[in-house]
User: Fold this.
Amino acid sequence: MAAQLWVRGPVGLDAGTRVTRPRCRTVLVVVPTVTAGTRLLDVVSLLETDLRVQVVFTVPHTTERWHGVEEFVRGLHGLVLPWAQAVAHRFDLVLAASHRHLAEVHGPILLVGHGAGRIKPRTHSRKAGEASERTTGVDRELLTFRGRVLPAVLGLGTDEEVGLLRERCAEAVPNAVVAGDICLDRMRASRHLREVYRHALGVTPGRRLVVVSTTWFTDSAFGRLPELYRSVVDALPAQRFAVAGVLHPNVWAVHGRRQVSAWLSAAVACGLLLVPPESGWQATMLAADWVIGDHGSTTGYAAATGCPVTLAPSCGQPQEGSVADVVRAHTVPLDWARPLPEQAEAARMRAGRLAVAATAAITSRPDRSAEILRDAMYRVLELPIPDGPAMLPPLPVPRPLPGWAA
Assistant:
């Protein structure tokens, strides 16, 4: 592999010879996956407008990389440092939403989750094969390296997760802060734009939007029921219903955008609105009238915002205590023997209680994550907190992919 040239940016011993804004605190955003990157954009929005702060991005690159991550990060139009350059310098703050590569970066790390909840929605780790114990996002092997706790600030979603952390990695408890869930908070703050999002998706007045959502891996809705998207489109009259598809970023990363689009091309040709992984799933959920989903985080977030939810049949079993387990307890699987509109109405009747339960499973600090995380970041940066409330920007409008062409 050819050596990567370093960027003449705002870091390094000679940075003072080229910067226009001197003495800025430098913040490194580590983006190993699109999933982590979309979560970190919410956090970055809390400090990037500050004239005292310089934000730079990097994509970890050792021997492998997820497809599409580099394109996603460069599409943000931020300053992107090569990985070798990023790990050669120390930063005033490092933002991460994944445990990957944390031991390699230099600077105090703020780590948040990139999904709903710290308990994985399955019994066995995808990495460990036939693991005999459940895996969580707060296990010692993920949070420590050679006896030291990696995150200086560990953002947790719920008070219950503190107890899980104490059980799994007690030495990290002093670094933990219950910050709630910034993704859910941003969705809640953008609910007033529901009609804007529906208009962007082409959902005309009088029509209802059904979203089919899937996580990744073989036990997901797309893994076990790839025909579900076309089946839902065919079962609902287009005059009354629009159908959108949301797939986990790892589906696109592993199989490639061309292949996923080709697999779903027949459904798209019949009217499916295919939402790309980097833009619009949150807004699409806010626009929805009904979500058919599996045990993935997107289903849990939709439920927490009050959207009626029905589970796709024959998918993976959620782990006890997870957000997905809460959703399962308040929903029923899709039944092809019953008319879909009838099942949508049944889901609507349960939506209120589900929203309360799902929200409690995701966050113990609803609508406060921006304030809590901003305070934590500025404490690490040793800067006075800016005046005014911490505000999350509205979610951008969703932009479905055009029809697939060979």
Q: What stands out?
A: The chain is about 35% helix and 15% strand. The two ends are 32 Å apart (CA to CA). Residues 208 and 241 are 5 Å apart (CA to CA). The first strand starts at residue 25 and ends at 30.
